[in-house]
Amino acid sequence: MTGSHVLALGHYQPAKVLDNDDLAAMVDTSDEWIRSRVGIRTRHLARADETVDEMASAAAAKALAHSGLAPSDIDLVLVATCTAIDRSPNMAARVAARLGLARPATMDLNVVCAGFTHALATADHTIRAGAATAALVIGAEKFSAATDWTDRSTCVLTGDGAGAAVVVAADRPGIGPVVWGSVPEMGGAVRIEGTPPRFAQEGQTVYRWATTHLPPIAREVCERAGLSPEDLAGVVLHQANLRIIEPVARKLGAVNAVIARDVVESGNTSAASIPLALSKLVERGEVPSGPRCCSSASAAICRTRARSSTAREGALAALAIPPRGPIRSRPAARALPTLPA
């Protein structure tokens, strides 16, 4: 085999929904304020006893069922997450046990919002090297457990959920090329730190970096994949913010692309945002298929199986970029208020 491709997708969102009016009863905000600034209407929240690996397993089970493969066919499980509390066993091992997989290699990757693209590239490289033939690649987050529900600048953004892809060996490359990269000294612009851990970010820094640096990176990925921005069928960013997604898509020149608005409307689930959105778009037949993907630590272009044979040939641009900006000191963690039932 000379490459790999995405065979199937699946997603999971918890049943509990927290809308903007619920948040307005908790902090000084309003439905109009949230929708006008970021576009979010609701967010799905996991139960207190619902774990990252439980959500990851639910999404992975759907992807596996859609693929037509047996559990014994999977020989690699990768879980991208930044909100898993337990160190060992890792989330990937727990997913493998829940799904009854035979003896796959299991690894977690913590690259926050760029997690899924890192995991997708890792699966592709592992399969190309001959160390695996079929992989489950999962993004799963329980951000509600790390959110400060008294901070209106961050609590309006986050949600919980998972998305998964089955990646298999192929006769010709369907994923790649990969552009690896980061800005290490600026990583603190988005962080989960402290005891208990709390999510915090430099919002304006993230906004400025994303709207100015994302389009050139996305264009580079398109060029390496042999595509033009006009070829893109969909644009998916991990950012739950239409003020970022729409300018990026416009500057990129993705004039024919569908913008995954529903992932915005249901909150930012970090590493889970991209596969969750891709799964929804493909499930609804809004994005077509093909055998070729291009993935990067900064951006990914991916073609997946279409639900409709009449769907236009195209690609998905999935963008997950570490922000650039100053690192500031972290405020002391505060106790979380009780969420509405």
From TrEMBL:
Signal peptide: none annotated. Residues 107-182 form the Beta-ketoacyl-[acyl-carrier-protein] synthase III N-terminal domain. GO terms for biological process: fatty acid biosynthetic process. Pathway: Lipid metabolism. It holds the Pfam family ACP_syn_III_C. Residues 222-298 form the Beta-ketoacyl-[acyl-carrier-protein] synthase III C-terminal domain. The keyword ATP-binding does not apply. The keyword Lipid metabolism applies. Gene3D superfamilies: 3.40.47.10. One of its GO terms (molecular function) is 3-oxoacyl-[acyl-carrier-protein] synthase activity. Keywords: Cytoplasm, Fatty acid biosynthesis, Fatty acid metabolism, Lipid biosynthesis, Lipid metabolism, Multifunctional enzyme, Transferase. Belongs to the thiolase-like superfamily. FabH family. NCBIfam families: PRK09352.1. This is 3-oxoacyl-[acyl-carrier-protein] synthase 3 protein 4. The lineage of its organism: Bacteria, Bacillati, Actinomycetota, Actinomycetes, Kitasatosporales. The gene is fabH4.
